[in-house]
Please model this.
Amino acid sequence: MDFIEVYYSPKQVSCPDSASPSPRKPAWVVADWIAQDFPIGIVEPLPAIRAQLAQAHSQNYVDGILSCELMNGFRGRQKEVADSLAWTCGSLLSAARGALNNGLVACSPTSGFHHAGVESGYGYCTFNGLMVTALALKAEGKVRRVGILDCDQHYGEGTAEIMAALSIDWIRHVSQEHWSPDDAKPFIDKLPEVVRDFADCDLLIYQAGADPHINDPLGGFLTTVELAERDRIVFSVAKSIGIPVVWNLAGGYQEPVSRVLEIHRNTMAACVAEYV
Ligand SMILES: [Zn+2]
Model:
C-alpha cells in the first residue's frame, strides 16, 4: 500500500469534562501522526445512521442518547458528546469498509465502545461501535464471520452482552483477559496463536488499547516495547493469514497524555512497517 487510510473527521471529537482523554484523542493522534510524517491518508468517514445504531442497541436507548435525555457513558447529557457518537461509530464502520475494500488494513482513531451494552453506557462508552460495525456489515452481506480482538486492558462486557442478547454465533470475540492478563511473556508468546484462530473470519476488528501499559493508572502489565511487539504480532500474523484488519485506539489514561500518544504512535509505526 502507498499509505494507511485513517478515517477521521473533527466531528468525532468531543471534550466532555472527564478523567478520560479518549474523546479528544482522535484529533491528537492524527496531528501526532502527521507530525511524525507517517504515510497516512485522511479519509472522511460517513456517520452511522440511527438504524445502524439500533441494530446493536434498543431504539429507546439510541433515541434517548441522541436527544440527550439519557445519561451517556460519561455520566452526563452533553450535546457535543451525543453529536459525536454517530461519527465515532461511523469512523469505525467506514474504516472497516476500507479494510475490506483494500484487503489489508485501515485505521479508525476512536475509543469508547466496548463497555456499551444493549441499553446502557458505562466507562466512557456510550454506543458499541464494534458491534454497530459488525452488525451493519453482516446485514449488508459484506461479511460472514467477524473477529473482535479486544486488547484494551478491560473486559468488553458490553460487546459480550449484545452478542448474547442477539444470540450471535458469527462473531469471535476475544478479550485479552482471556489469557494471562498480568504476565507479559505468556501474553506475547500466546498472541500469534490467538490471532491465527481468527483465520475463518472475513474481518478482524482490533482494539489496540494503550491502557495495558504497566504505568497506566487503570492498567496494566506491558512495557512500551512489549505493546509495540503486541501490535507487530497482530498485524504480521493477520497479514500472513490474509485477514483484513481495522484497528482503533481504545483506552489509555497515563498523564501527561503524551505517554498515551506515544503508544498509539507505535501502533501506527507497526502498521506502516507491516503494510506500506
Ligand atoms: Zn480500558
Notes: The radius of gyration is 17 Å. The longest helix spans residues 79-102. The mean pLDDT is 96. Strands lie at 4-7, 40-43, 105-107, 146-150, 171-175, 203-207, 245-248.
